[in-house]
Structures are given as C-alpha cells and as structure tokens.
C-alpha cells in the first residue's frame, strides 16, 4: 500500500515526487512514456519560451547555455533531477484504470500490474488529451493535435 501514487512524470509529477520523498511518504510515479515525455515530444532543438528560472525546481540548478533552455537541456535536466534525487519513477507503464475502494483507498491498474494507494495524484498534463473541435476534416491525416516532427 503506497501513501501516494503519482500518474505522470512531467514537471508536475516529478515535483510531487520530490516533495513526497522529502515528506517521507511511500510513493511511486508511474509514467507511460519516458521521464518528461511531453518535452521529449517537443520538436528537436526547440528553444522553449520560458526562462530557466521559471522552469527549474531549485534555484540555479538548470544550467542552460542561454536565458531560455532548449528541449534537450530541459529534458536532460528532468532526467538528471529524477536520478540525482533517486525518485521512484517507473517508466513505460500505462495506467489504464483508477478505482476508489473506500476512503483514502484506491486501486490503480496499469498494463503491467495493480497497485493500491491511499492517495492518487493525476499529473497527466493536457497534451495527451486534446480537446477535439468536432468539425469536418479534423480526422484528415494532415491535421494534427500533437506536436510532431514532420
Ligand atoms: C512545443 C511546446 C513548447 C512548450 N513550451 C513551454 C514553455 O516554454 N513553458 C511552459 O511553461 N510550457 C511550455 N509548454 C507546455 C508544457 O510542456 C506543459 O505545460 C508541461 O509539460 C505540463 O507539465 P505537466 O507535468 O502538468 O504535464 P506533462 O508534462 O504533459 O506530463 C504528463 C505526463 O503524464 C504522462 N501520462 C499521461 N497519461 C498517462 C497514463 N494514463 N499513465 C501513465 N502516464 C501518463 C504523460 O506521458 C506525460 O509524461 C510547451 C508545450 C509544447 C508542446
């Protein structure tokens, strides 16, 4: 039984894991892709629009060459942060179901197993779940709702 299961290892999930560890909780992060998966899917070489100080978890620890980091700098920062802080993150595991069994008692099902937790945090972002416009033509192959290399 975990105190906390976090779904998603984007910046929100990583930050939650960091705080959970500091608080001494028994926690687990389950990520369907890789650490920082949304950033991983940014176009290669992209410079993000936020400045370094707006993105780093601790002041001064995201060292980028310029004021704004590139996709690669940000991604390596997130991976390094998880490894350096020994955060408990399981990647390439999709959470498929979450069920409330009782007060502060949840069952999570993934494509690799089942887990029980007192609390569940959905840090799944918005990028993977686009709001469709429900208009003619949006299902055409040339119409995209995700950032993808062309
Ligand atoms: C090209 C581009 C540039 C951007 N530039 C900026 C910028 O400069 N500044 C800024 O603030 N924001 C920027 N954003 C937006 C930024 O990426 C998001 O705001 C940020 O990633 C949100 O973080 P998050 O942790 O909430 O969600 P995410 O980073 O989206 O993380 C959610 C995670 O949950 C995982 N997940 C989802 N469903 C499941 C499931 N069922 N089971 C397991 N795991 C799951 C996903 O794989 C993902 O890793 C940009 C976005 C794009 C596309």
Structural features, described:
This protein is of the alpha/beta class and 150 residues long. The protein is built from four helices and six strands; from the N terminus they run E-H-E-H-H-H-E-E-E-E. It has a six-stranded mixed β-sheet with strand order 3-2-1-6-5-4. The termini are far apart. The mean pLDDT is 95. The structure holds flavin-adenine dinucleotide. Flavin-adenine dinucleotide binds next to helix 1 and helix 2.
Low-confidence stretches: none
Identify the bound ligands: flavin-adenine dinucleotide
Whole-number radius of gyration? Answer: 17 Å
Helix proportion of residues, in percent?
A: 10-25%
Cα separation of the termini: 44 Å
Outline of this structure?
The chain is α/β, with parallel strands linked by helices. It has helices spanning 11-22, 37-40, 52-55, 71-84; strands at residues 2-7, 27-30, 89-90, 95-102, 105-110, 114-122.
């Amino acid at each position: 039984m975990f105190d906390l299961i976090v779904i998603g290892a984007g910046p929100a999930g990583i930050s939650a894991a960091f705080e959970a560890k500091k608080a001494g909780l028994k926690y687990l992060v389950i990520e369907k892709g890789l650490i920082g998966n949304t950033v991983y899917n940014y176009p290669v070489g992209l410079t993000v629009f936020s400045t370094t100080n707006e993105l780093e978890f601790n002041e001064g620890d995201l060292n980028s060459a310029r004021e704004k980091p590139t996709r690669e700098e940000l991604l390596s920062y997130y991976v390094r942060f998880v490894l350096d802080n020994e955060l408990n993150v399981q990647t390439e595991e999709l959470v498929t179901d979450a069920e409330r069994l009782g007060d502060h008692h949840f069952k999570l099902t993934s494509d690799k197993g089942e887990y029980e937790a007192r609390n569940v945090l959905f840090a799944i972002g918005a990028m993977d779940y686009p709001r469709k416009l429900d208009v003619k033509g949006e299902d055409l192959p040339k119409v995209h709702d995700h950032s993808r290399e062309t």
